[in-house]
Write a structure and sequence with these properties.
The structure holds 3 protein chains of 3 kinds.
Chain A (H helix, E strand, L loop, with lengths): L1 H5 L13 H6 L12 H34 L4 H6 L5 H11 L5 H13 L13 H36 L4 H14 L3 H13 L22 H31 L2 H8 L4 H38 L5 H10 L3 H29 L1 H6 L1
Chain B lengths: L18 H11 L1 H23 L30 H7 L1 H29 L1 H15 L3 H10 L5 H28 L2 H8 L4 H37 L11 H8 L8 H32 L6
Helix pairs in contact in B: 1-11, 2-3, 2-4, 2-11, 4-5, 4-7, 4-9, 5-7, 6-7, 7-9, 8-9, 9-10, 9-11, 10-11
Chain C lengths: L17 E10 L5 E10 L4 E5 L6 H7 L8 E10 L2 E2 L5 H7 L4 E4 L3 H4 L6 H11 L6 H14 L6 H4 L8 H13 L5 E5 L7 H17 L3 E6 L2 H5 L4 E6 L2 E7 H6 L4 H8 L48 E4 L2 E3 L15 H7 L8 E12 L2 E12 L3 E5 L6 H8 L7 E6 L2 E2 L9 H6 E4 L3 H4 L6 H12 L4 H14 L16 H13 L5 E5 L7 H18 L2 E6 L2 H4 L5 E6 L2 E7 H6 L4 H9 L2 E2 L5 E2 L14
Helix pairs in contact in C: 7-8, 16-17, 16-18, 17-18, 18-19
The chains are: A mainly alpha, B mainly alpha, C alpha/beta.
Chain lengths: ~350, ~300, ~625
């Protein structure tokens, strides 16, 4: 006991036998807990439940989006056209937005349209939202995928290596760098990158990532370099820090010590015993950050004038183009929810213990 | 009785100090916390005192747009011919005040929700967390963009929107920190004495969650600053033409090649500000980790 | 002195399998030694018990035998020889070859030491593969089946494919044993492998260890805080205190006639199954590494200590045949003074025929669809101590929490002084909350780490009202004295205290409102034996001084003889036997009680080990 206070490495020898909560779970000695057979059906039911829950969240999200854009007190038409708008123009806009119908009817019409792929007309461009966003969706999707493809392996590897070299120079150095980078807003990183690499200091990369209409983003990798780098810097530090913490905890665990005491090669200890257990909690963080990328593109695309959904959202918000804002909000929230669902599945797959408890 | 008497009080440690305060003091001894606090203090002072020492009115036309440093405008002029230095000195207040208010509101709401959910368990816990999941389905910047899409940005909408994105994240952390505490026996001991629920939550549970909550609060302040500045950068400041570091960067980005000061100054300020709050949070996290290490024997 | 002290008198052995000499482990960043001057040897097939209380360094020694030191520690001296191998001089690569093949380890907590993400079969197989113990995958599979049979686990494919969390605690520990013996090592280090297991499961595991060590001629180091467990298993015994071996000798001799004052007191602190005997604790607390006094570390707590003890560390010296002790006054000792508790205990008896102060009637309680307590009725008379004994899962804690208003029962009622009480504490009158107090199992969890001792102990006074702050502080000082804590402790925080001190603080908190009934829920199970004895001493004294009624809940059957007037035995949510302590312990009527008594590792009256053979069968099925 005294040793616990002074930080001696020996762990005191007592495991209190069963607290109140344990009694509920305790089995008669010898009985297995949670037969393995039940697990598979449990996983299917878990997935179904999680998918339904995600759908419910999306439904709630749509209500929030709708409420925030159209149902709030105040007249959206007035807000959109400004104080000087003529009564005729206001009336016309109200008709177009179907504002003269009951709120619930409006909401239902909007949802039904979304589900049928009728996303409405952009007020600013007077063009169907679908046509306005199709190319941009491809551009943004590509940007996010490339950023994820770089940031996830990079951050996982960085976190693992720092944990493995715990308290050595690399660990301390990377910890400070990551800490500094983790808090910087994306636009600060993006503009600094432009200052350093594209304008004031050096001039090695394009400052804007403009794409001609119909041009695909993969046709000009150098244009993508800065936006991707900015997104990676926005996401990787946080994931790397969580990965390191998770790995450090697992490396301190009894089962890693046991694996070493069994005489297993260090590579087996790290890759088979430590890594799978450390990855579980990190999946959630990776998903959150993938989803965060979906939000981060708003700023990053704007910084580099990249024609994606993020810069479209920024323009739509400034122009009060409500149909476009609504669709983009649902889209980005959908990516967010899907990423979280994927993370739950991945976590379950690497954590047998959780499968047993389903 | 003699058989169980303890030896004299010689082994007693020096009189203890409140544990939370002890950890904060330990955090203050860390170099990173001190650097962080210095940065935060420096930039807060700049934001508060800046407007009073600015040589010109931030909205006054001084010289030709995008002109370089001169005697009149020591750091040149911006895209409208206004003094960069004066606009920089006047441009921190809006971001800092809005971000502080939003973070504070979000942290208070989040801590309350997290504690209630953790202590109540069961159905109420599930309900609160599902509602928060809906808010969490929006990336923070998205929620703010949707909120300002119809009516445009006002200070209150910005504060509310950022506070709403902050609260669920704080609530999750608080709940996570409180869950192992509410099942500890000292909480049961207070229940056996018949202490009212709200007093148990405040006096027994809250103090033990202080470490993670403080760390999360500084993290949320960092993100609130970034978010408010990002919105201004996207053209969504409460006052679109006012002096604001985020707005300045947006307005002067196109002239970066000829007149970098209008971008470099405010961007350095925002970077140092977020680095400062990040360092403070990390210092607090380390100090509390040190405090909690070795308390529990297995 | 011989290089491997304490070994001998075991004629016929070919020579020790393991020789440890002058082992020293230090804290990595200065701050002194954790263990030092540790020397012993073990013959093939022999089990050496290494006993000590928490913080004594026994796990550090065990890990050093595998050339391993935990974070923050470093092996800095001595040698560990297993056959021709000098373990401490091996390179990392050579160490990997040796670990698991020549020397293996059985962990304390298999639930934590088995990898939760890998099937048990995979974890068994990888030991064989890492050490190339099997030529082919087929041979490995056969070997795994053989290993599982040896530890009495089902060797079916379905079982091999299970994950650790799908096994019971006893099965997990058997997997760890199978793993340790897989490559037929020459030395196995067993680090408290039965801590946390029920007595019946523990008895099975101990029998398996004994069988494996004997049949494969493996030298075993069995580390435990529990002398009674070691007594039934080990041929020889080494006792550690503050990082040194203070005594080593044949187990039976050492327990019957210990030479070192610490060992003597430790033996006296062990509860006996033989009925109502007082326990005596050891005053003071063990010094932490880096905080140890010059000379003998036990001197500050030793009534025999002389001036020389405080200046120089005594050497291990021969005190008998193959029996060494690190004490210059080893021969001078007398019997351990048992203190006034002995006479007190005899004089204590519940006044017969008085109305019960607390009674529970047909309590049923559980969680959602699981009923854990199935209609339990018990009554406690004024000043009586009733022990409620059961294994984990029997429902004893849930029952206690139901009485205390912490776990509302599904049905049944609780009466205090004949008055029925509300189901939750919050709805009970302040007087009822004052008169009945609860002491929790784990003093590391029951004291708010952010409060001072004064605030913690004074809390009931603040909540239940009454008196000024000065009066409250006076009362706190008073109860701290009653539980033998110095007044200065009031300013401390719980993390500055040892486990025993914390439990005294928890008891002081329960006493501060002058209750009539104390519910003590496993209050000693998180504590060392010597501390446990001191807490039992304290409770016995408080009963005598204050006329307290105590409901003493425990899984430790031998312990009840030292504290309780009556015993109730609980299994599967029901009380299956109630009676006077002496009667129940000596002439148990229920088969389950008989089995519990047979499985409990315990020392006989003269300190001789009663062999702990596993009883067959399980707790009786619940009556319909």
């Amino acid at each position: 006991m005294a040793s616990a206070r002074s930080g001696s490495p020996e762990r005191p020898g007592k495991v209190p036998a069963g607290t109140a909560g344990d009694e509920a779970r305790a089995d008669p000695p010898g009985a297995p807990r949670g037969p393995a057979r039940r697990a598979r059906g449990g996983v299917a039911r878990f997935l179904l439940r999680r998918a339904l829950m995600s759908a419910a969240v999306l439904a709630a999200v749509s209500a929030v989006v709708f409420a925030a854009t159209e149902a709030l007190p105040g007249d959206p038409a007035q807000a959109i056209l400004g104080r000087s708008a003529s009564p005729q123009a206001l009336a016309a806009l109200r008709r177009q937005l179907r504002l003269n119908r009951p709120v619930l009817q409006q909401y239902w019409d909007w949802i039904a349209g979304l589900l049928h792929g009728q996303l409405g007309m952009s007020l600013a461009a007077q063009e169907p939202v679908t046509r306005l966003l199709a190319d941009r969706l491809v551009n943004s999707g590509f940007l996010v995928l490339v950023a994820a493809a770089f940031s996830i392996p990079l951050s996982v590897a960085l976190g693992c290596y720092a944990a493995w070299r715990r308290d050595r120079a690399f660990d301390h150095g990377s910890s400070i760098v990551l800490l500094v980078l983790a808090g910087l807003p994306e636009f600060v990183v993006g503009v600094l990158a432009v200052v350093l690499l594209a304008t004031t200091v050096l001039h090695v990369l394009p400052a804007v990532s403009y794409l001609a209409p119909g041009q695909r983003p993969w046709s000009d990798p150098s244009a993508l370099a800065l936006p991707v780098a900015t997104l990676v810097i926005a996401v990787a530090p946080y994931v790397a820090r969580v990965m390191r913490a998770s790995m450090v905890e697992v490396m301190e665990s009894d089962y890693v010590e046991m694996a070493r005491l069994k005489g297993l090669p260090e590579r087996t200890v790290l890759l088979r015993h430590a890594l799978p257990n450390a990855l579980g909690p990190v999946f959630q963080v990776i998903a959150l950050n993938l989803a965060y990328l979906a939000g981060g593109i708003v700023v990053v695309e704007y910084v580099f004038a990249y024609p994606g959904v993020g810069s479209a959202l920024q323009a739509a918000v400034l122009a009060h183009d409500l149909p476009v804002v609504q669709v983009l909000a649902m889209l980005i929230a959908g990516v967010y929810v899907a990423a979280n669902l994927a993370a739950d599945v991945a976590t379950i797959l690497v954590t047998p213990r959780m499968r047993g408890q389903l | 009785m003699s058989g169980t008497g303890l030896p004299g009080p010689a082994w007693l440690p020096a009189a203890g100090q409140a544990r939370g305060a002890g950890a904060l003091r330990a955090a203050l001894r860390l170099r990173r916390t001190r650097i962080g606090l210095a940065l935060l203090a420096l930039l807060t002072a700049l934001a508060v005192l800046g407007p009073h020492v600015a040589p010109h009115s931030p909205a006054a036309f001084i010289a030709r747009p995008d002109s370089g440093p001169s005697a009149l405008a020591p750091l040149g002029t911006d895209y409208l011919g206004q003094d960069v230095l004066s606009r920089f000195l006047s441009g921190g207040g809006a971001i800092l005040a809005t971000a502080f208010a939003a973070a504070l509101g979000g942290v208070i709401a989040g801590v309350a929700l997290g504690l209630i959910a953790a202590y109540a368990r069961g159905a109420l816990d599930a309900l609160v967390m599902r509602i928060l999941d809906v808010i969490l389905a929006f990336p923070p910047i998205m929620l703010a963009l949707v909120a300002v899409a119809t009516t445009g940005p006002s200070t209150w909408i910005l504060i509310t929107a950022v506070a709403i994105t902050t609260a669920p994240r704080v609530a999750r952390v608080t709940r996570g920190a409180a869950q192992p505490v509410v099942v500890r026996d000292f909480v049961a001991a207070a229940e056996a004495l018949g202490l009212p629920r709200w007093r148990i939550v405040i006096s027994e549970v809250l103090p033990s969650t202080l470490g993670p909550v403080l760390v999360e609060a500084t993290l949320r302040l960092t993100y609130a600053i970034g978010l408010i500045a990002s919105l201004a950068f996207l053209g969504l400041a409460a006052n679109p033409n006012g002096a604001n570091w985020g707005t300045m960067i947006q307005q002067n980005q196109t002239a970066l090649a000829v007149q970098p000061w209008g971008v470099v100054l405010p961007i350095t300020a925002i970077a140092l500000l977020t680095i400062g709050t990040g360092l403070i949070g990390d210092g607090i996290a380390r100090a509390f980790a040190g405090l909690d290490r070795g308390r529990e024997p297995g | 002195m011989s290089a491997h002290p304490g070994h001998g008198g075991q004629g016929g052995h070919p020579g020790p399998a393991v020789i440890v000499t002058g082992l020293r482990v230090e804290m990595a960043h200065g701050g002194g030694d954790i263990v030092d001057e540790v020397s012993f040897s073990i013959a093939p097939g022999e089990v050496l018990g290494l006993a000590g209380e928490s913080g004594s360094g026994k796990t550090t020694v065990g890990l050093a035998l595998l050339g391993h030191a935990r974070r923050g520690a470093r092996v800095t001296g001595g040698s560990v020889r297993v056959g021709a191998i000098d373990v401490l001089s091996l390179t990392d690569r050579e160490l990997r070859e040796v670990r698991g093949r020549i020397i293996s380890y059985v962990p304390q907590d298999p639930a934590a030491a088995l990898n939760p993400a890998l099937r048990v079969g995979t974890q068994l197989r990888e030991v064989l593969r890492a050490h190339r113990a099997c030529a082919s995958a087929r041979e490995a599979s056969e070997r795994i089946v053989e290993m599982l049979r040896e530890v009495a686990l089902p060797a079916e494919p379905a079982f091999i494919r299970r994950y650790p969390h799908e096994l019971s605690g006893g099965q997990q520990q058997r997997i760890a044993l199978a793993m340790a013996f897989a490559c037929r090592p020459r030395l196995v280090v067993l680090d408290e492998p039965t801590t946390g297991l029920d007595v019946t499961t523990q008895a099975h595991v101990l029998a398996t260890v004994r069988k494996l060590a004997a049949s494969h001629q493996v030298a075993a180091l069995y580390i435990s805080h529990d002398l009674a467990v070691i007594a039934g298993l080990a041929q020889r015994l080494a006792v550690m205190y503050a990082g040194r071996i203070v005594e080593v000798g044949a187990a039976a001799e050492l327990l019957a006639a210990a030479a070192h004052p610490y060992t003597r007191r430790l033996v006296a602190a062990i509860p006996r199954l033989t009925g109502q005997e007082p326990l005596t604790g050891i005053p003071g607390r063990a010094p932490a590494p880096g905080d140890r006094p010059p000379g003998c570390a036990f001197a500050p707590r030793c009534e025999l200590a002389a001036a020389e003890c405080r200046t120089a560390m005594p050497a291990l010296a021969v005190v008998g045949a193959a029996h060494l002790a690190r004490c210059p006054r080893a021969a001078a000792g007398g019997a351990v003074t048992t203190g006034p508790a002995a006479s007190r205990m005899a004089g204590l008896a519940a006044p017969a025929g008085t109305a019960p102060v607390l009674s529970a009637e047909r309590i049923r309680a559980g969680y959602r669809d699981v009923t854990i307590v199935k209609g339990v009725s018990l009554a406690i008379a004024r000043g009586e101590c009733l022990a409620l004994v059961g294994e984990s899962g029997s429902g004893k804690t849930t029952f206690a929490r139901a009485i205390a208003g912490l776990h509302p029962p599904a049905s049944g009622r609780v009466l205090l002084d004949g008055q029925p009480l509300a189901a939750t504490a919050r709805r009970r009158p302040a007087e009822a909350r004052r008169r009945m107090q609860y002491v929790f199992q784990n003093p590391y969890g029951s004291l708010n780490p952010r409060r001072t001792v004064r605030q913690i102990v004074g809390q009931p006074l603040r909540v239940l009202g009454g008196g000024t702050r000065q009066a409250a502080d006076r009362r706190v000082a008073e109860v701290l004295e009653q539980v033998s804590l110095p007044p200065a402790i009031a300013r401390c925080y719980p993390d500055q205290l040892s486990g025993g001190e914390r439990q005294r603080v928890a008891i002081a908190r329960a006493l501060v409102s002058a209750p009539a009934v104390l519910i003590c829920d496993e209050v000693t199970s998180a504590l060392d034996v010597s501390v446990q004895a001191a807490i039992v001493e304290l409770l016995t004294r408080l009963r005598a001084d204050l006329g307290l009624a105590i409901l003493f809940i425990t899984h430790n059957l031998p312990l009840v003889g030292s504290i309780a007037d009556r015993v109730a035995v609980m299994a599967h949510g029901q009380v299956i036997e109630v009676g006077a302590t002496r009667t129940v312990l000596r002439h148990p009527s229920a088969p389950y009680t008989r089995q519990l008594i047979a499985s409990a590792p315990a020392l006989g009256p003269a300190g001789r080990a009663i062999p702990a053979w596993p009883g067959r069968g399980q707790p009786p099925a619940p009556a319909p």
